[in-house]
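Quiz preparation item.
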């Protein structure tokens, strides 16, 4: 009987490239507004039919996986990964012959004839260990000439490789990095510039908007979009200039509604946004005590915890009289939903820069690297469009049942031609936000 390997769970928040897990907090009674045609209108009827079946099968398989006593996911040795393809169908990767039952027995109880089986060379365990090894080298060994030229690392589940993106692509640099791992065939290389964070760096590509899909009526929740003090995911965030109290600059976007247990201050309600939005006014990341405002110059909240390590996020305690809602462009965010997501899952981000819209895209994979400021950044690549001011915007999954789940917040993007697969947006994972604040963990409520 094959043994199973145990993966470190510190950054493994994406199932087989990326996944989010449920975290405990209070359940509330919500009546979700749904649009059964959202995925169909955005991606096509055939894709939608396949997609919902694929996500159901995926969830069944994911729920079957075991965890160690410390919460690490345990994967079969011959498991190579899993993803949803461009037709909405689930694809499972196996090491060895796909026609041998011993190589596919781990998945057979959770799939049907719509699932494709692909043979690959490397187990997901090997891909992940290689990714983590190179990530640690980027963190601890930046003086190494081979590592200094690396702009990022991408775990490519579909290609069954770990991609190294280089600032200066050359045979010498490729050989130097290849010598660092046990089997250089697991690596692939390409030139990709450093990711850009902040308004002055974000791509100015036109948004891919699906605003024709049904929006919700706020009257259903006795909430008006013009009610003073009401804050919605996707709303604009402003900072007051330190040398001119009458000057305010839009710097980012409200992320997801959250609560935090702050030592000495008890439970706080508020929202999560990107920490780097402080650069445009303060020349630094947001830090505890910074005040944030809305477009009417009303105080919406105060930062109580901010970015640590490579996690670009800040928790903002809502101001007295303010109310952060869970209403998004396509329904509501359900509590207790850090949904597990396969590569290829459709995700949506909300913004109000040119009127309230939701933009859809698909997940492309987990990425770690450096931004244009030289700061290390960790997140997930996706194909939705990003505009200046979108930093901090909520990213969520949508389901026809109304079971919308938080994925994270927008933090950066590359120029539109950087990635052949269109995954030029980067979002920070909500699960990492929970891990970044020991003792004051923000979580959806």
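Solution:
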């Amino acid at each position: 009987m094959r043994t199973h390997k145990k993966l470190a769970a510190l950054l493994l928040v994406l199932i087989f490239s990326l996944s989010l897990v449920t975290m405990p907090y209070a359940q509330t009674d919500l009546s979700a507004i749904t649009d059964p045609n959202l995925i169909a209108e955005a991606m096509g009827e055939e894709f939608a039919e396949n997609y919902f079946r694929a996500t159901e099968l995926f969830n069944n398989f994911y729920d079957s996986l075991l965890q160690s006593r410390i919460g690490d996911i345990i994967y079969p040795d011959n498991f190579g990964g899993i993803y949803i393809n461009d037709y909405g169908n689930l694809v499972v990767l196996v090491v060895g012959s796909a026609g041998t039952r011993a190589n596919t027995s781990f998945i057979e109880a959770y799939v049907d004839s719509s699932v494709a089986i692909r043979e690959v060379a490397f187990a997901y365990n090997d891909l992940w260990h290689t990714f983590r090894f190179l990530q640690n080298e980027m963190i601890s060994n930046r003086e190494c000439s081979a590592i200094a030229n690396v702009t990022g690392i991408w775990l490519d589940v579909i290609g069954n490789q770990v991609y190294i993106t280089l600032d200066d692509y050359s045979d010498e640099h490729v050989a130097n990095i290849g010598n660092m791992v046990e089997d250089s065939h697991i690596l692939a290389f390409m030139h990709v510039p450093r990711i850009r964070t902040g308004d002055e760096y974000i791509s100015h590509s036109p948004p891919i908007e699906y605003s024709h899909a049904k929006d919700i009526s706020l009257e259903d929740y006795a909430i008006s979009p013009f009610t003073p003090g009401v804050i919605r995911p996707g709303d604009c965030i402003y900072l007051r200039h330190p040398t001119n109290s009458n000057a305010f600059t839009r710097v980012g976007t409200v992320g997801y509604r959250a609560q935090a247990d702050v030592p000495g201050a008890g439970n706080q309600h508020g929202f999560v946004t990107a920490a780097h939005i402080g650069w445009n006014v303060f020349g630094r990341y947001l830090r505890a005590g910074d005040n944030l405002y809305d477009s009417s110059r009303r105080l919406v909240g105060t930062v109580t915890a901010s970015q640590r390590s490579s996690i670009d996020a800040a928790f903002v305690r809502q101001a007295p009289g303010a109310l952060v809602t869970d209403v998004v462009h396509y329904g509501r965010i359900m509590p207790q939903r850090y949904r597990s997501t396969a590569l290829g899952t459709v995700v949506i981000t909300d913004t109000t820069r040119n009127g309230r819209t939701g933009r859809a895209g698909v997940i492309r994979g987990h990425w770690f690297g450096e931004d244009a400021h030289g700061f290390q950044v960790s997140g997930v690549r996706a194909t939705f469009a990003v505009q200046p001011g979108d930093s901090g915007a909520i990213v969520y999954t949508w389901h026809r049942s109304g079971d919308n789940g938080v994925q994270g917040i927008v933090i950066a993007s590359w120029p539109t031609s950087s990635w052949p697969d269109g995954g030029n947006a980067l979002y920070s994972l909500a699960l990492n936000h929970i891990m970044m604040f020991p003792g004051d963990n923000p979580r959806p409520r």
